[in-house]
Queue: 3 jobs
Job 1
Amino acid sequence: MKLLKLMNLMFFLYMYSSVLISMIIIRSHIFMCLIILEFIVISLLYLILIFCLLNDCSFYLFVFMMTFYVCEGVLGLSLLVCMIRTHGNDYLICMF
């Protein structure tokens, strides 16, 4: 059981660190940044799922956070569409 906890934690850290490294490397397009942020959200959702499974919690927190993450993704895509309509591209340089 202890090995399973350690493996899950290592998998979460691998997901989270690889996403942060890719966020540092890829910074030109807003769409790529939104996809990277969604992978961060998926890794955090995985951590919440593992926490709920190991501590025999109810899955209300998991469903609650999943609802917020879906709303966050929709809001990001709608902002991307608005920016493409006004500026004509999705480069981050156009924002500054």
Job 2
Amino acid sequence: MASKASILLLLMGHLLVAQTIAQANFDRRQSQNNSRQLSPSFSYMDRFSGKLFQKIAKSNPGNVVISPFSVHALLGMILAASSGETLRELKQVGEFGKNHTDVALDFQRLIKFKDHLQGVELTTAMRVYYNQRLGGINTRFEEFAKIYYTAGTEPVDMDNGGVTATKINDWVANSTRNKIKNLISSKSITSNVQAILVNAVYFKGRWEKAFSTSATRPAKFSLTDGRTSQVAMMHSKDVYGFADLPELNATALELAYKDSETSMLILLPNKNDVLADLEQKLALPEFDLNRIAPRLRRQKVEVGLPKFRIEFEQDLIKPLKELGLRQMFSPSSQVINLLNQPVRVDQIKQKAYIDVGEGGTEAAAASYATVNRRMISNNPIFVANRPFVFAIRTPSSVLFVGHVEDPGLN
């Protein structure tokens, strides 16, 4: 069998959360979310998110953040260009129970969702760079990717790895406000590379209920191995979405973003040594994150949340193979309609970045000594002083998901 040229898939995401003193109406946002709860037609996206996150989290004991939406969107594009066993595996792993056009319509709706957001900045961008010498892109696929995924295409010189890497990295940096840099190296680009698919997701939001910088103070964070880490713990006492989840041995808190339908959902295990058990359960269909969200109830909660920043890079081929996606990485790959010749996928990389805090770290540090001890209260207390899971979600999809093992690590 003739060898196939290769294709690289690169994904990146950036999420920046900045707090302000603005207050918004929780009931209005909760009502909007309840009226637009996850449609059964979108539930396959959450099933894929849970499975992928569990595989990655299991092999990465440190801090983790990924954008399952980015991975799923690229797999959806490849679905449209595949046949045979490759198509079967993509449908199984990606939970694609529909044909490729219906899947594309779902992603088209989610990509356009950002146009209706007012209080947050959400950018999704996809691009296909193809080898100008080894063969052109399939024109039908090019039109399909543009219409449904808003994906641009551009011919590049794969013989000149330095120039092409710079071109791609510049596009990535621009798409993520310079938060994701140097995603691809010139060594990854050779004359045998047929195409490089890139996906970027950028999110910036402000809390609906603010954390005051004057309430931030040093605190101990219990690590899984029994040690402790010193962190900057933000504090607030306000009305939030809160739920006790005994079947997960955890509690949940929802922090809404200002003037939008997006939120951060935090799952805090009741003990600091059971994070892996929680993540394993989240891979089950009955515990996907968007099914947990409707159980949240509005009530006054005393919240403690550490500031944290994570930059995470992951080769996704191993976890995807563990989920059952194998043939498209082999010489017998049946990705036949993306370019003018069959190709195999050689790399799928994702680089993601998240920054959660008030946005004024130096000022917060100066106010540590001015805070008094809290009084005893009958309100529910949610203090994330041990490893936890977080997700940035809309009513119909999970944009980012990760876990924090040690907020003191960047």
Job 3
Amino acid sequence: MVNTSNFKGAITRDVLQKVIVVQAAASTPLLAMLLGNNRILDAKSQKVEWYTTEAGSRRTQINNGPDDYDENTTSIVVDDGTVALPNDQIIFEATGEIGIVTAVSGNTWTVIRGIGSVSAAGGSVADDEYIMNIGNASGEGADAPADSEASKTAEHNWLQTFRRSIQVSGRQNRIETLTEDELAFQRAQAFELINHDQEHAMLFGARNGNAGNDADGNKITTMGGLREMVTTNVSNINGTMSQTEFDAFAESAFDSGSTEKDLYAGSKLIQAITDLHRDQRRITEPVANVGLRVVNIETPFGKLRLHHHPLFRGAFNGDGIVADVNDLKLRPTAKNGGGRLQLKKDTQDKGKDATREEYFAEHTLDFGAEQKHAQIRGVTGADLT
């Protein structure tokens, strides 16, 4: 809980950051995790851009269309021909048959079939069956293999400006109070509001480089939050969640990235996960550098740190977002005071008998590779049958 006494006297950006990380972490855990783990990198422009790389998939499916493949078929059409290069070994998952790709033309592979103990079989090459690349096997004295260039994906997000102002009249400043200092009280309240503004944007914001104009005609840019930007690993439950459904969600959440991730979730989702894991020993432990204690759930695919997030409420009470904090960054502006949260003092008009101040922050969320995060939606409870 935010302590009003911290908001008396001079307040620096470092003080505000410490209060977020230590006292306000329960209400804005994503912001606190980024600041507490120093996941901060300056923004160089209002459109913040970065590149991501993902290890290429090693699996694809057979796409034989109208053709009937059998044990003699050596020319095979697949959904994604880039999964293998010439001289790569493959395994047909349906039967365990092993083959070698000798040529690649688009999505068509030429394959030597049945090189191991499992003979070539028609069941290996049925439509939609999976093939997995199990490694290169070059010939003795062969020339250099085909090039395998890692691909880069351009990503971006837009800066968003956050402002909250407070004003205390000269009379209020001059009157002794029996409770909190009035200016300190107003500072604390506005501080919580602007933190919620930032947290909401990082979770629910819409990415737009020209979202319209404010009342004075100034252009507004907004950042995309994780709910909008995470598109690959999305589980729509829309009802009670079974253990099988939870495990499938966890498998997708840990498909790439870290083996420990954070789930920020509403109370219905937290309760459903807890009900499904009542027999599992759950450990509550402090989060390093952040004023949070979280419950850990060990899934077959990685460790989930559960955060009950107070901003997931109403229609989003059964939703949650899994974030790989190692692939997230807060990107504030840096010049002329910068965009880290700060308190600008004495912004009142000259000669006015009042004190006016303003909280100011300007940044965006660098979400890295969106495939390393995940989200789940519409959980109403646990299916324990």
